[in-house]
Amino acid sequence: MKILLPVDGSEHSDRVARHVVQLANSCADYEIVMLNVQAPIDAPEVRGHMPAREIEAMQETRGGDAMASARALLDAAGISYVPELAIGPVAETIARIARERQSDAIVMGSHGAGALVSALMGSVAREVIHLAPCPVTVVK
């Protein structure tokens, strides 16, 4: 079973990671791709003052930070996974990666970090359900 696990560093992501640990423990043959998607930074005031490589490095750092907690949970449980960072529109990128990786399922949180992000992540989850090439499990 190929599972795509999008995470954003929130408590909801940690719940999802714990759920994936349970799934992996009940399935002898699994492959997990832990994904963090960073939205593109297109603001002219940023692009005009920072070289593209610095912006990319900043997004890589943010992505690594967002995966740290979920990585620790999977590591502690002895669950193997492949971390991946992508930059793009969040829902579309999750669906694209699921398609490219031929994922059997996407397991993601219903909300993200912070009040505003939570509202946005709820809409991201709905959009992923609409765009996904495979079943999507949304964990509360």
Structure explained in plain terms:
The protein is α/β, with parallel strands linked by helices and 140 residues long. It has one domain: 3-Layer(aba) Sandwich (Rossmann fold). Helix content is 51%, strand content 20%. Strands 3-2-1-4-5 form a 5-stranded parallel beta sheet, sandwiched between helices. Helix 1 packs across helix 3 and helix 4 packs across helix 5. The longest helix is centred in the middle third of the chain and has 25 residues.
| Count of distinct structural domains | 1
What is the name of the CATH topology?
Rossmann fold
Give a short account of the largest sheet.
5 strands, parallel
Spatial arrangement of strands, main beta sheet? 3-2-1-4-5
* Euclidean distance between termini CA atoms: 22 Å
**How large is the count of helical segments?**
5
The topology string of helices and strands comes to EHEHHEHEHE
CATH superfamily: HUPs
Question: Using DSSP, what is the number of strands?
Answer: 5
Low-confidence stretches: 114-121
Helix content: 40-55%
Shape: globular
Taken as a percent bin, the fraction of beta residues is: 15-25%
* Cα gyration radius (Å): 15 Å
CATH class: Alpha Beta
CATH architecture assignment name: 3-Layer(aba) Sandwich
Overall pLDDT level: 88
Structural class: alpha/beta
